Amino acid sequence: MIQQNLQQRLFQKISPMQIQTVKLLELPLIQLEERIKKELEENPVLEEEEPVSDEQTDEAADSNEEEFTLEDYIEDDIPNYKTSTNNNSRDEHREYSTMSNSEGMQQLLEEQLAFQDLDSRKHTLGQFIVGSIDNDGYLRRDLQSITDDIAFKMGIESTVKELDEILKIIQTFDPPGVGARTLKECLLIQLKNKEQTEEIKTARLILNECFAEFSKKHYNKIILKLNINENLLKDAVREILRLNPKPGTGYENIFIEQAQQIIPDFILDFKNGEPELTLNSYNIPELRLNRGYSEMISNYSSKRKLSREERDTVNFVRQKIDSAKWFIDSIKQRHETLLSTMNAIMEFQTEYFKTGNESDLRPMILKDIAETTGLDISTVSRVVNSKYVQCNWGVFSLKFFFSEGIQSDAGEVSTREVKNIILECIENENKQHPLKDDEIKEILESKGYPIARRTIAKYREKMNIPMARLRREI
């Protein structure tokens, strides 16, 4: 016998509009612009709000009456609608170019390869090797894998020995060190091209015989192993440190740097000593519903009887109108949420925005802003992520203003202030005898910051600062 039970459950269901609002909230300014353009292209009911004169308004009304009739819409399955903007202020070119005239490293290598005395087969193999070199200038794939790829993609049978001979030719090209498979090989290639003075010969010997000790800065072990004096070691190490560990870095496409330029989401100015916060409108247009489609629905809704095609078309247009309304409301809600969050951050960090001094940054976490705005912590996190503000002191990620607090003799202070003191200690240390974490701990305690050694090590690692032994210089 089958038993039937009734159960009452309570759960939350997120509406499509809420999902859309959350997704829009996460987008930085450039991506939001692209998202709006996409919506304008896909939804004919949605259009940009543009200021027009009274005469233009009358003309537009007449045009709408003629353009949007249900019969026309039925006959044309693909309606015509606006896919580009004509307002110059919104279509103005961005400050950065999306094209680059710089010569890439791969092109430079191919040009040098063309001047080599190679037959067509070796030239083709050389081109394939050049194409396998990464942006840093390294060949990180083993030659056996490259021979397999050449056989599969080009139908050319080759050997590791043959490719190695061609690679040695490529390793003589500019930039020096290109085509190396390891850091050690990269440095040795660069030293090989220099005048072979005693310092250069010693540097090559250090890399060949004591690379592990050199990497760990065990200089005393190198002196004992190679039986050299400290002065010669200093000169040799100085020559090594002058080399370029990433020979391809300077030949990267400028577009990569240009694409990383930041456009702030907020602009914060001070007028008469009072902060004034605005959203950066950039290329973000004002949106509205196209009146022609709304009037068309009203006209045909008054008819007593519609054909099947008319009903389908009316339903389709209604769906587009609802979608457009949702999108406009989501954009407005996004703006309100962003401003609410940034206003709370601005009030919390008022002193910093006035002075630009990091010591004025107060400890602040997501929970603080969530409680101030009444928003959920996850919503605040979405606002903070990938958003930037421009103020008198530069352009900052919103994440910059968040940090935990620690207790000091003067009260609670931001961990950023402690990190700055650690950084200052390391910058001013004696590089022959760098400060250990215990010594930094003593300095902080003398300044009124009682912090554990392991906490100092954690902060140091977060700032990508190596331990004392690896900071040592001779």
Distance between the termini: 87 Å
Q: Which whole number gives the mean pLDDT?
A: 79
Number of domains: 3
Number of beta strands: 8
Helix content: 40-55%
The major β-sheet equals: 4 strands, mixed
Overall radius of gyration:
33 Å
In one word, what is the shape?
Answer: flat
Structural class: alpha+beta
Runs in which pLDDT lies below 50 for 5 or more consecutive residues are: 63-102, 253-259
Strand content: 5-15%
For the largest beta sheet, what order do the strands appear in spatially?
3-2-5-6
> What count of helical segments does DSSP give?
24
Detailed description of the structure:
54% of the residues lie in helices and 7% in strands. The longest helix has 41 residues, at 308-348. Strands 3-2-5-6 form a four-stranded mixed sheet, covered by helices on one side. It has a two-stranded antiparallel sheet with strand order 1-4. A two-stranded antiparallel ribbon has the order 7-8. The protein is of the alpha+beta class. It folds into three domains: 13-78 and 263-400, no CATH class; 105-251, no CATH class; 405-471, Arc Repressor Mutant, subunit A, CATH 1.10.10. It is built from 24 helices and eight strands. Strand 7 and strand 8 (411-414) form a beta hairpin. The chain has helices at residues 16-26, 29-42, 54-67, 70-75, 88-91, 105-114, 120-131, 143-154, 160-170, 183-192, 198-209, 211-215, 219-226, 230-241, 254-259, 291-301, 308-348, 350-355, 366-373, 377-384, 415-427, 437-446, 453-462, 468-471; strands at residues 46-48, 266-271, 274-279, 287-289, 388-391, 394-397, 405-408, 411-414. Helix 1 (16-26) crosses helix 17 (308-348), helix 3 packs across helix 16 (291-301) and helix 10 (183-192) runs antiparallel to helix 11.
